[in-house]
Amino acid sequence: MAVKDGSDVPPAMLESLRGPLTGYCYRILGSASDVDDAVQETMMRALRAIDGFDPERAALSTWVHKIATNVCLDMLRSAQRRALPWDMGPASSGGADLGVPLPAARWVEPLADSRVMGTADPASLAMRGETLRLAFIAALQRLPPRQRVALVLRDVLEFSAVEAAEVMRTSVAAANSALQRARATLDRHRPHPADTPRLDDVTQLDLLHRYVKAFQAHDVQELVAVLAHDARSGMPPFAWWLDGAAHIAAVMSASDACGDDRLIFGEPANGCWTLGQYRPNENGVLVPFALLVLELRDGRISEVVTFLGWGDRFAEFGLPDVPEADQEGPMSPAAFGRTRGDMSTTTRRPHPCHRPTRN
Question: β-pairing, 227-234 with 300-308?
């Protein structure tokens, strides 16, 4: 529909940008809990200023992303860099002392794919999923905020140089300079590629079921068999983490803290598989305990991030408050397709942010 001025913009057109804005703000902020506030503030500011929108000067998406950028930059003014446990320091030797929990504001947080993934071609979905990985979000947090904005606009959302400069309220030359510095930094912290989750991949599903059974049965030998030799495991909000399948197995052998816990498949988050971890309370009732985000590489589980204390957000990942007696998963094909779309054309996700973009 042709829009003559801001007063002609229907609310539905503005609302259709909520999903893309969620993905944009999440990549900039690294926080699922802050994204809702950022997007809502953006929408409110856009509604208040809509009469000033000039469609002959910029597209609606460009104009709204400019507002979102200002909101995010304001939120980041006094924020510390968010990270994952392995970004905080060396791995633990395997002792039981987890240390002191760090504030929630220090951690990259998981985001359900259903909040940002719409219908698109498979290649585009694979690319977007790659740039939502926890490791990629953590790498983005190493960039100064404006460089982060430049890289996400150009190399993830594929804005032109002119559009990016408009969003950033700067010159094309300055926006391009920020982009080049961001790319150089990202090159030094680029995460390893990972396998794209596929519900129709029997090998992946078998691997995940083996992990669940090994975890619940406290079968250390089988756990080692499904982990990559260089697998790593961390538990935000603690900086404590383990490097290598052998260390993970050793810690599991020495503790029975998870002996009565149960794992249930959830909907994808950050382009990865998820599991809800439930633990019996004082009455023996299973209650939400932690959200696990798993990455796979070459037919093995290469990374497990266990987000402790995320039980109150299980519904975002399709997980129940109280599991049924026989509930395990994985999710139904319908739910998988609804949240991720058809991504069956690729099994190994490409490195993002290094292909030419339109000028």
Answer: parallel
pTM, rounded to two decimals: 0.86
Segments of the chain with pLDDT less than 50: 1, 119-126, 329-352, 354-359
Helix (H) / strand (E) containing 315: none
Dmax over Cα atoms in the chain, in whole Å?
68
- Looking at residue 248, its amino acid is I
The tokens for 198 are 């596929």
CB 148, CB 113: distance < 8 Å: no
Q: How far is CA 317 from the centre of its chain?
A: 12
DSSP H helical ranges for 118-189 = 122-130, 134-140, 145-151, 161-168, 172-188
For the stretch 149-192, pLDDT in tens is 999 999 999 999 999 999 999 999 999 999 999 999 999 998 88
Mind listing the pLDDT tens digit for each residue in 310-347?
Answer: 999 999 999 999 887 665 544 433 333 333 333 333 34
* Residue 34: how many other CB atoms lie within 10 Å: 21
- Of the chain, the end-to-end C-alpha distance in Å amounts to 25
> Is the link from the previous residue into 330 a cis peptide, with omega within 30 of 0?
yes
